[in-house]
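Explain my protein.
***
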Amino acid sequence: MGRAEERRARQRGGRRAAPPTRSSGTPSEGLATGGRAAARKAAARGKKGAKSGKSGIRRLFTWKKILGTFFAFCLLGIGAFVVMYMMIDVPKGNAKAQEQSNIYKYSNGSVMAREGDTNREIVDLSEVPKPVQRTFVAAENKTFYTDAGVDFKGIARGLFNTLSGKGKQGGSTITQQYVKNYYLDQDQTVTRKLKELVISLKVDRETPKDKILAGYINTSYYGRGAYGIQAAAQDYYRVDASKLSVEQGAYLAALLQAPSQYDWAAASDTGKKLVTARWNYVLDNMVKQGWLDKTKRDKMTFPFPKEPKAAPGMEGQKGYFIKLAKQQLEKQLVAKEGITQDEAEARVENSGWTITLNIDKKKQAQLEKAVKTQLTSQLDPKKRKVDKNVQAGAASVDPKTGKIVALYGGSDYTKHYISNANRTDYQPASTFKPVILAAALENASETQDGKAIGANTIYDGTSKRQVVDSNGNKVGFGPENEDDADYGKVTVQTAMNKSINSVFAQMGVDVGMDKVLETATKLGMDTGKLRPLPAYTLGTMGASPIQMAGVYATLDNHGKQVTPTIIKTAEQGGTEFQMPDPIGEQVISRKAADTVTSVLTGVVDDGTAKKSVQQNPARDGRKVAGKTGTSDDNKSAWFTGYTPDLVTSVGLFGEDYKTHGQSKLYNTAGLDRVNGGGFPAEIWAAYTFGVAGENIKFDLDTDQGAAVQPTWTPTASNTPSQTPSETPTTEKPSETPSETPSQTPSQTPSQTPSQTPPTGEQSTPAEITTTPVNPFDPNSDQ
């Protein structure tokens, strides 16, 4: 071994023998240095342990394991689906077996009507023209002829919505809808959806497409109680399915999305727009699919359907009751179970429901009698053409429970399909004015000069007075008072009594029309997407007697919301379906609601309803609040009034008996003009005082209005008063109206209506005759 090798060997041996320290100092220094090194090593081991813990989590949740778990679940799902596919057989069709009569009862439990003879006639697909067949494919499922019978995206969405409580939101193929209609039911459960998927796949694999399409169009519900395309063709167009045109077929196909909503005979303006849009969608899809020539398509016009046929057992008012009950039940099914409108209708139609209504037989009979004696008995359609166009509607509500205890939808459901009690295509006119006052009180609103708005607030009642905003700028709106009458400076109480347009137009702007519409919504009106325009102060939106009864019932109920309902109970298969409580939360303060009620007593005692209601001998001192209303061009007239325990809204509507468009009521029953203080108020009084119970007073929490203060009534003139009284009368109020009517009314009323604005002092001949008549001052209301 050379010296170099020996030296390296010694060095190696020395390193092996050296102490574990890099220091060559003293032993104590070496020990200290070694301790620090040990600490560093311990810390390093701790870090290593932490890293190893993290790496353990990473090892547990690696992408490979996550993907492996996902694919394992997929395999399990596929396996489970294969098992289901093998176990679930296509059942026998049970649509017929599930059809049962619906039973409708009065509030006392007596049976009112049974409904359940299914209107269906099965036709072979060969009897339906090929272009008409394709309208259904274009409407519902353009890939029908090529798909596997299911929409997997739609199924996944439906399952997710069901599990998350959102309900179904469409996406089914024609095959799936046929399976649901014919083999299953409308339940929104995971089990039913999975069955639908499996059965649809099997049906599509085993059944020709044409047979599936035939089953679909023969089992679908088209509205009007019609199941299947043959019944629908007859009900809507009075032809067999074989005679349907493409345009008519497209309408029937469009109907399936929402049969009741899209039925032209009863559809709202919104419903008509929607079904027209869907009709166009169907035809445009046919062009895209190459099934319809574009030139022919461009020449097609909307095929307006015929009026509904008379339905057995639905005559008189029964049809209106049943229709409203169905609508309210369907609405709750959609809301609670998340199903679509067409599914809700299928759930209700001929499905074994027992529905007890809130209709009180005694009150209902009295309401029908009141309409007959106070209105229809005085109409002579042979003598006056306008008398053919008069339609009456009414709804009576218990303000403490929200029950619709009586309802008048028209002369006969089998003759007039649209319910006048529930229609929203006519203006409520001045019956909207209390809503403006309620908004002012609820929002503590002030006039332009900073004074709080209340019953005694002074406004300018000059006709055509231009409304100004908070900056003093004219807003381009100056409504005319009735007969262009000028009232000068008046209190809000007097303005309500006399229905002075110029006052409430200014008040609406002072409050803010956005706040007015917000209050209207809270009280129960459907304001939809109305813009906050000053013109709405005149009640130029649409509303129904049921809606207005709900608004006034909320006022009568001291500001707690009342939603009128005709359904007392609804049972199916022994299980009761829970309807929502008609009495809701406090939507405006009690003081605001009670103040409006107090003011509205003045309309009866000293205003436009004085002679029809206050002077009615059947009143017997009962406390009454209410408001008259007459729309522009005399197309509608209203009286909505209430006692402490009953609210009733009565409307008269001009409807052309041929076209069903709106028409004017001038010269009805030989009178110059129909006003809310006339026929509507007379019907209201004859009904309300005919069913009145105990005479009770309004329990009002207010120090304003006619119920607690007498009112000051100016005389209208063409020249505004220059020195109005700024302070209302402070005389002690009494139980009698501030202006006591003569106890002996004139026996010979004037045959020529006065042209001066009403003072409410004229007597009414109807009060002293045994034969009901309705002469009244045509200038009694706006």
Q: What stands out?
A: Residues 73 and 675 are 73 Å apart (CA to CA). The radius of gyration is 37 Å. Residues 15-33, 165-170, 714-782 have pLDDT under 50 and may be disordered. The chain is about 40% helix and 10% strand.
